[in-house]
Amino acid sequence: QVQLVESGGGLVQAGGSLRLSCAFSGGVFSIHDMGWYRQVPGKQRELVAVFTSDGRTNYTDSVKGRFTISRDNAKNRVYLQMDSLKPEDTAVYYCNADLPWYTWWGQGTQVTVSS
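RESULT FIELD:
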C-alpha cells in the first residue's frame, strides 16, 4: 500500500518562496510518475507539475518559470520548489503517485499566499 505524506506548506507573502516535500513509502518509487496537484474550494483539482519515471517534467502554464519539481529516487521523495508566489497560488497542494493501473494521493498541505 503506497502512502504519501506532504509537508512544507504554510503562509507566505506574495513574492516569497516555499518548498513542498512528499515522502513516498510502500512501493517502488522509481517506477511511479510523481506529480503535484492543487485544489481550491469549488474548483476541480488541477495538475501543477509532474516528474515522470523516465525523467520528463511538465508544468501547467501558470507556474512555468516560477515552480520547479524534482525527485530523489534514493530518498523516495518528490519536491516542489515554489518561487515568486502569487495570491492565486493559494490552494491545498496534493502529492500524487501514478501508475497506468492505479493512482495514490497524499492528504494535502495548505499553501496560503497573502497579498
